[in-house]
Amino acid sequence: MDNERSELRWGVEQRLEFIEFRLFWEGHVNRSDLMDQFGVSVNQASTDLNRYIGFAPDNMVYDKSARTYVRGPAFKSRFLQPDASRYLAQLRSVADGILDREDSWIADLPPYASAPTPVRGVNPVTLRSVVGAIRRSEAIEVKYQSLSSPDPRWRWIAPHAIAFDGFRWHTRAFCLTDQAFKDFLLSRMLEIRECRESEVSAKNDRDWNTEVTLEIGPHPALSETQAKIIALDYGMRGGNSSCPIGSARSLS
Fold this sequence. Notes:
Blueprint: H1 2-6, H2 10-25, E1 28-29, H3 31-38, H4 42-55, E2 60-63, E3 68-71, H5 84-95, H6 124-136, E4 138-144, E5 153-164, E6 169-175, E7 180-185, E8 189-197, H7 206-209, E9 214-218, H8 224-233, E10 241-243, E11 249-251
Parallel strand pairs: 9-11
Antiparallel strand pairs: 1-3, 2-3, 4-5, 4-8, 5-6, 6-7, 9-10
């Protein structure tokens, strides 16, 4: 099967993944779903469904009364690994207006609510200039508003990476004015006017290249059952979890 899959065109494989997504999450799929999502013809949609059956004959059966294919009792993923994070990310993206409803693979969106995320005003031209400078190893002159200064000022920076702290987007760059590596908020870059070659190497950014493993675990005062719930909440294995940032702490 792997050899057959490797010969599939990207568009065909994507439609087969879509069929499997709908079967797993919605329990059914039909030709009109493929036609609406990908703009294919009736014949192409039928071909895709038959092709999927060829790969996974036990994954769906045709329900004559409902006139649709439904998930089979022996369903087993063939084209994608069911991922709750992917489903929830699509749900939030649609609800927040990041993803158009018609671009989502979710057929029937469940009622959803979340705390609004603050909108960070990153200028697309600014982002393009920063990313371009990173790719070409250049320094750029930016008009930057720092909270340590009442007025914005021009400075040369040599960016080498993009970072996200969970709320705001930064660029990690060497500041030629202060002769130090710093984080610069993209939203505080008001203008960019010049660029030039830079010899600054990201390898010299010791703080950026140094990682400390953060280990988290349930608070020792919790009961065994509560500790198990905390471990489940944070995807812990063996009673703890780790990631390459920060220092150790406990959660309650």
